[in-house]
């Protein structure tokens, strides 16, 4: 068994070496194995150079660039999937499987990892990293400029009387301040009711605890709302509905715009800014 | 009280155990069912207790036992299985009280009549003095009397008991037989499967000798337990002697 | 005579359940009380306290009451029916079967109907598991046969539940395995109480109707039959009642293990071993115990609440081991 494995690996390695033989030119066979790097790669790379993306990248529920990924082969982020595409660049996430990354290192495939973005600066870093890796740093800077302009337009100052807000994700988690969603709340002039930072990014909040915090604004992170889950059932809880109807304003935030920290979260900022502005007028429900 | 058994046939696992068996009995009477192993004694009383399916007819005071409503039947026919045991460590009194279950009205606790019956049964079986003891901590002989008291407490007109004295020492064997005798003397009928022929002969009014699913002899103990029947049915030579309470059967040699 | 102390014990247990029920409504996370808020000066504060009381705390407390009662009752009844002190709806696979049924309806069948049908799935799953157990273990199952058959059914249905959840077209199904297999009352709503309660009530009535039959079974099936209890009918009521009650309970709260096992054992020293007499005090004690356990999971101030099934298993599993040891010692 071991011997066969070695032979197979050697064969794969030979194939990869042949593919990356042309040095100095921008990578022509990019494989991305995580949604967060998929989004950046598809936006920045020359058409045709991205050879494969992670399997959820083509799903419009998950991905803001589903249309760009529609015709691409999808991978499962396994070494076998990756190597068989003969990549000259692999884009991965900081949290991608270390076992997979170790195999890629043995195969001498260059890997660039994006980080878990919890601030606007992290997003800019990721864009720059991917843009540089694919050999088009100027495209990265242009995108960042557009992103910054959009953010500037949605920036709101906190009002004199603070507006308390919560971003409630359907699993029952509330976004902590040290997440990109927390940063967005602050950006739009809200005060996050979840004050404590959380290592996981989300703080478990029962409906009762949520109501106890008396948020003026409830942003609900919706993911695949039409598919059954206990999580969605919780969002339909009568107490939560009653609270939102009588004591708060609410807005839905589609998950595909925020599950990855990419410039697409500027859309979330726009929505939050619009919600923030609505507090200057009467409540319409 | 009249029990009629007519053309009774029953099978166990495909093998015919009882073949066209008929007899009548009127209470009060203490009937001993005797016969070699596999003769069908247990099957017979289980059929009368309606525990197994059978063909033919068994009726009590003219009513077929298999068409009577179970609770009504339970009030008329009590049954004490061989080697019956309590699965839970109940007090003696609670075990005996289980005999009153057929008499309880729905949603009602035991009536004074039930309490009296429980006391009477405990008295008769001589277990009153350990009424509060856990039945599982009693000796085998005491426990057998408690379970007998449970069956007595039903105060059924017909009591069926399967080998009530098996595994008891002579003292307790006599005790149990006396309890059954006393129960009959209150005007009821007892049908007991017995292996000890001397005890059967001494305490029973009538013996029914079964062999291979048919009745080979039926009548008073001295008529049934003859040297001839013992030889042909039990295949033993036996010493038979005494009269009344002194009647005894002593097997001495197998017939080749 | 003893009926008075029996009555007193039941009253005491009912009082205990009532106290925990009220505490369950008024005491929140970290032991914080709702009473002050209900009398707050600010009207919004008051109305929100009422909202929490009515829509969050009340359904949770009612579920604690009903599900605890269900588990206590069915545990006692199954032990009586099988004449086996190790029987319990969880150990014999009824609970995990119910979870499978509920999961199938919830994740795969809901498009067609509403949450109303989830308890039906739970009931069907529990009944099928009990049917399989009956076929596997035969008429007079030994302790070993019964436990092994139960373990096999539990393992199989739990695996199927996990498989179903991994195949489900639901974004969080995989995370939700933990709820279905470990149980929780957190954030259940009044609707769920309404859908499940009728099944629990019907099941409990069926099971309660077997009380005298279970007493008779103390002396074996033949004796019970000659005491006027139709064996098939008796078993059918106990098993179907258990399936209805446990199935509906699990469909709302997930699998909560060991309550049905522990409660009858705690009650026996008080009222004796007679199976029929155990039913009422086990029902009350089950409710009290589960309400108390649910208060316990609320005590840690920070972090997510521990799952209720974790707490009951943490207490119940060692108890179960101790029972096995004791049974081994007592066996000849």
UniProtKB/TrEMBL annotation, chain B:
Residues 3-237 form the ABC transporter domain. The keyword Nucleotide-binding applies. GO terms for molecular function: ATP binding; ATP hydrolysis activity. CDD domains: ABC_Iron-Siderophores_B12_Hemin. This is ATP-binding cassette domain-containing protein. InterPro entries: AAA+_ATPase, ABC_transporter-like_ATP-bd, ABC_transporter-like_CS, P-loop_NTPase. Keywords: ATP-binding, Nucleotide-binding, Translocase, Transport. It comes from the Bacteria. Belongs to the ABC transporter superfamily. Part of the ABC transporter complex HmuTUV involved in hemin import. Responsible for energy coupling to the transport system.
From TrEMBL, chain C:
GO terms for cellular component: plasma membrane. SUPFAM superfamilies: ABC transporter involved in vitamin B12 uptake, BtuC. It is found in: Cell membrane. The keyword Signal does not apply. It comes from the Bacteria. Keywords: Cell membrane, Membrane, Transmembrane, Transmembrane helix, Transport. The keyword Cell membrane applies. Coiled coil: none annotated. CDD domains: TM_ABC_iron-siderophores_like. Pfam families: FecCD (PF01032). Gene3D superfamilies: ABC transporter involved in vitamin B12 uptake, BtuC. It is a multi-pass membrane protein. One of its GO terms (molecular function) is transmembrane transporter activity. InterPro entries: ABC_BtuC-like, ABC_transptr_permease_BtuC. The chain crosses the membrane at residues 7-27, 58-78, 90-110, 116-136, 143-160, 166-183, 195-214, 238-266, 278-296, 308-325. Its main location: membrane. Belongs to the binding-protein-dependent transport system permease family. FecCD subfamily. This is Iron chelate uptake ABC transporter family permease subunit.
């Amino acid at each position: 068994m071991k011997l066969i494995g070695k032979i197979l690996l050697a064969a794969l390695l030979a194939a990869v070496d042949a593919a990356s033989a042309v040095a100095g030119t921008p990578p022509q066979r990019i494989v991305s194995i995580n949604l967060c790097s998929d989004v950046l790669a598809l936006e920045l790379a020359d058409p045709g150079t991205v050879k494969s993306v992670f399997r959820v990248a083509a799903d419009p529920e998950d991905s803001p660039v589903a249309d760009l990924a529609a015709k691409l082969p999808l991978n499962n982020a396994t070494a076998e999937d990756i190597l068989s595409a003969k990549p000259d660049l692999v884009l991965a996430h900081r949290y991608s499987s270390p076992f997979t990354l170790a195999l890629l290192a043995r195969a001498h495939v260059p890997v660039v990892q994006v980080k878990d973005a919890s601030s606007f600066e992290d997003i800019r870093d990721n864009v720059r990293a991917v843009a540089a890796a694919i050999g088009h740093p100027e495209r990265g800077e242009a995108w960042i400029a557009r992103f910054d302009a959009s953010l500037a337009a949605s920036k709101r100052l906190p009002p004199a009387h603070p507006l308390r807000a919560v971003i409630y994700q359907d699993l029952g988690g509330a976004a902590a301040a040290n997440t990109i969603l927390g940063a967005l709340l602050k950006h739009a002039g809200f005060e996050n009711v979840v004050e404590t930072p959380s290592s996981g990014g989300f703080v478990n909040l029962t409906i009762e605890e949520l109501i106890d915090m008396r948020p003026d604004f409830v942003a609900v992170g919706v993911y695949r709302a039409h598919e059954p889950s206990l999580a969605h059932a919780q969002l339909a809880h009568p107490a939560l509905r009653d609270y939102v109807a009588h004591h708060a304003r609410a807005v839905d935030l589609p998950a595909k715009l925020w599950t990855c920290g990419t410039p697409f979260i500027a859309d979330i900022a726009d929505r939050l800014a619009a919600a923030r502005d609505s507090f200057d007028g009467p409540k319409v429900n | 009280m009249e029990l009629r058994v007519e053309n009774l046939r029953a099978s166990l696992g495909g093998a015919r155990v009882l073949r066209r068996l008929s007899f009548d009995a009127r209470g009060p009477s203490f009937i001993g069912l005797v016969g070699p192993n596999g003769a069908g004694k247990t099957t017979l009383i289980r059929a009368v207790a309606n525990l197994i399916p059978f063909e033919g007819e068994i009726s009590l005071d003219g009513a077929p036992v298999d068409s009577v409503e179970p609770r009504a039947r339970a009030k008329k026919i009590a049954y004490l299985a061989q080697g019956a045991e309590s699965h839970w460590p109940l007090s003696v009194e609670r075990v005996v009280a289980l005999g009153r279950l057929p008499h309880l009205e729905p949603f009602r606790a035991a009536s004074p009549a039930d309490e009296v019956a429980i006391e009477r049964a405990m008295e008769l079986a001589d277990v009153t003095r350990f009424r509060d003891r856990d039945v599982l901590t009693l000796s085998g002989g005491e426990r057998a009397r408690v379970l007998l008291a449970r069956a007595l407490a039903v105060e059924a007109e017909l009591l069926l008991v399967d080998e009530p004295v098996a595994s008891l020492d002579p003292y307790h064997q006599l005790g149990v037989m006396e309890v059954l005798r006393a129960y009959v003397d209150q005007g009821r009928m007892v049908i007991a499967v017995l292996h000890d022929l001397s005890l059967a002969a001494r305490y029973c009014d009538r013996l029914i000798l079964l062999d291979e699913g048919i009745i080979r002899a039926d009548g008073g103990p001295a008529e049934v337990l003859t040297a001839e029947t013992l030889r042909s049915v039990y295949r033993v030579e036996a010493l038979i002697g005494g009269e009344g309470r002194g009647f005894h059967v002593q097997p001495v040699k197998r017939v080749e | 005579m003893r009926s008075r102390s029996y009555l007193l014990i039941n009253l005491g247990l009912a009082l205990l359940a009532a106290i925990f029920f009220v505490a369950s409504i008024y005491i929140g996370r970290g032991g914080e009380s709702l009473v002050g808020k209900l009398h707050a000066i600010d009207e919004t504060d008051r109305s929100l306290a009422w909202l929490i009381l009515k829509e969050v705390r009340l359904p949770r407390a009612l579920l604690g009451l009903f599900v605890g009662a269900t588990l206590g009752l069915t545990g006692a009844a199954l032990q009586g029916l099988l004449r086996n002190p190790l029987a319990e709806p969880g150990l014999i696979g009824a609970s995990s079967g119910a979870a499978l049924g509920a999961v199938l309806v919830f994740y795969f069948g809901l498009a067609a109907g509403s949450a109303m049908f989830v308890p039906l799935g739970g009931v069907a799953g529990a009944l099928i598991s009990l049917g399989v157990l009956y076929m596997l273990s035969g008429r007079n199952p030994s302790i070993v046969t019964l436990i092994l058959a139960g373990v096999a059914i539990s393992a199989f249905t739990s695996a199927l539940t996990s498989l179903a959840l991994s195949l489900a077209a639901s974004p969080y199904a995989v995370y939700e395995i933990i709820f279905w297999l470990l149980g929780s009352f957190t954030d259940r709503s009044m609707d769920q109480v309404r859908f499940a309660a009728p099944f629990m009530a019907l099941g409990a009535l069926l099971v309660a109707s077997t009380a005298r039959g279970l007493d008779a079974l103390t002396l074996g099936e033949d004796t019970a039959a000659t005491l006027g209890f139709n064996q098939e009918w008796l078993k059918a009521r106990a098993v179907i009642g258990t399936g209805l009650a446990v199935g509906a309970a699990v469909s709302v709260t997930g699998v909560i293990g060991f309550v049905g096992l522990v409660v009858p054992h705690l009650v026996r020293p008080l009222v004796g071993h007679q199976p029929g007499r155990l039913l009422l005090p086990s029902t009350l004690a089950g409710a009290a115990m589960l309400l108390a356990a649910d208060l316990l999971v609320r005590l840690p101030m920070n972090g997510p609440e521990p799952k209720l099934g974790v707490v009951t298993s943490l207490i119940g599993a060692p108890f179960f081991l101790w029972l096995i040891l004791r049974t081994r010692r007592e066996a000849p």
